[in-house]
Specification:
This protein is of the alpha+beta class. Helix content is 31%, strand content 30%. It has one domain.
């Protein structure tokens, strides 16, 4: 992803995700009631912007199971089968955008409004206890691992060296180069407080082989700012990390390809 509007942007999806703990002392019955109240309140508050409500197939999953897995169970879309959308489950809330993503003109303010609505809806149940706040970008860069060496592509296109010793392939019956890759690394982050994650993995996009680039910033527990008051500040700081990473990783011919 990138703050600049790219003609051939590789963005697959931009996601803001908030997770929280159930209310203290909730048993299964009270948890189900609280979730029902939250869902009803969200329907009222989201209907103007996201009028198309759709229960997901796992909406009937047991409350305890859905809570533990932070399972989304309901979608609210701007219109039927259209993006952007928000999703909610017993302990999770997301804002999702794909094609048409624009940070300055849409996604930033959309996420801020959605988190404000969630906070307002949850007030009647008591204070929310956030456990995780995440900003995640998924990009898909066209690449055919059957014709090219993925490690060479990562080195040349993303300026990232990943290597293995030749002895792994000498007299072992194992052939280089790799047919797929799944590489993830995490770093301490100070603005905002939390962790920054980078993942490179083989995948597909629109039926074509691709290299998936994921950039994420996550704050956990006490690192999560006060919501909704401090969310905008957190979001701006979090966005700066993947935006900068994307530009610096793809700078050169690859970035020029995205510019069109």
């Amino acid at each position: 992803m990138c703050a600049q509007k790219l003609k051939n942007a590789p963005l697959v999806e931009a996601i803001v995700e908030l997770r929280w703990d159930p209310q203290p002392g909730d048993d299964s019955r009270s948890a189900a009631l609280n979730y029902s109240l939250l869902l009803g309140r969200l329907m009222d508050l989201l209907c103007d912007e996201y009028p198309a409500h759709k229960p997901l197939p796992n909406a009937e999953a047991p409350m305890q199971f859905a809570s533990q897995l932070h399972m989304v169970q309901h979608q609210f879309r701007v219109s039927d089968d259209a993006w952007p959308l928000v999703q909610v489950g017993p302990t999770v809330f997301t804002v999702n955008q794909t094609e048409g993503y624009d940070w300055e003109q849409d996604f930033r303010d959309r996420a801020i409004r959605a988190v404000k609505i969630l906070s307002e809806a949850h007030q009647r149940l008591g204070p929310m206890q956030p456990t995780s706040l995440l900003l995640r970008y998924i990009d898909a860069i066209e690449f055919d691992s059957e014709k090219e060496n993925v490690l060479d592509f990562i080195q040349d296109g993303l300026k990232t060296g990943i290597s293995l010793p030749d002895t792994l392939f000498t007299d072992t019956g194992v052939h280089a180069p790799p047919k797929s890759i799944d590489f993830k690394t995490s770093f301490q982050c100070t603005r905002p407080k939390g962790m920054a994650h980078l993942r490179l993995a083989s995948g597909q996009s629109r039926g074509q082989n691709a290299l998936i680039l994921e950039t994420m910033v996550q704050s956990l527990s006490d690192e999560v700012p006060r919501l909704p008051d401090k969310f905008a500040d957190w979001l701006d700081a979090a966005h700066e990390v993947p935006s900068t990473w994307f530009r610096r990783l793809t700078e050169g011919p690859l970035y020029a390809r995205f510019q069109g």
